[in-house]
Amino acid sequence: MWLSFNILSRMVDLSGLDPDEVALRLTMSTAETEGVERMNAHLDTIIAVKLLDVRPHPNADKLTLCDADTGSEKLRVVCGAPNHKKGDIVALATVGTQFGGEFTVKKTKIRGEDSSGMLCSEKEMGLSDDHSGIMILPVDTKLGATMSELFPSWRDTRIEIDNKSITHRPDLWSHAGFAREIASLYGRAYTSPVDRSIPKSFPAGASFDVRIDSPDGAPR
Length: 220
Fold this sequence. Notes:
Elements: E1 2-4, H1 5-8, H2 19-29, E2 33-39, E3 46-56, E4 64-69, E5 74-79, E6 89-93, E7 98-99, E8 103-104, E9 107-110, E10 113-116, E11 118-119, E12 136-137, H3 147-150, E13 156-161, H4 175-186
Antiparallel strand pairs: 1-13, 2-13, 3-4, 3-6, 4-5, 6-11, 6-12, 7-8, 9-10
C-alpha cells in the first residue's frame, strides 16, 4: 500500500515532518514501512526562465540557440523544439538535474555550440504525454521559480506500507485511516474527508437532477 503525502496533507497538517521520520515512527508504533519514494524529484531543479533571444543554430537546420534569463544569471541553451520564441517563459532543466536513473543534464557542446541545460516538454518532465514542444509558462511566472514551487501537486512523496502488517487493522486500509493515525501520533488535528453536510435521509418522493458530463464515458 502506498501513502501519498499530498493526499495525507489534506486531512492532517504534515508541515515540518520529514517523510523518513514519519515512516520510521509508523514502523515502530503502527505498521511496518518498506520504503520512502520522492516522486518527480527532478522538478526541484527545473526552473522558469525567459528566452531573451532565439536564433537558428549555425550548424544545424532544426536546432536553435536560446539565450535564457533565470532571474539571477544568463545561460545559453541549444534546443530542438519547434514551438518557442523570444519572450517566452519556459521550463529549463539546470545542469545536474537527474531524470530518475535515465540521464543527468550536463553542460555540453551540441554541434559546436555550448548548451547549459535543457528546455523541457511536459513529457520529458513526466507530467503528461505531450511531447509536441517545450512547455510554455504564463507570462507572469516568476523567473527562477522551480516547477515544484509552481506546481506543488506534481511533487509528492509516498511511503510504502507492508500490507501484511495491517491485515488486523481495517481502519488503516485507506489514506484517511493513516491520516488519523499520524494525527494521533503527532498530536495534530485530523480533518475528515467526508462531507458531513450531506443529508443522511431524504423525504419520501424526493427527486434529484442528474447530469452526465461525459456521455461517451457513461452511455447508460
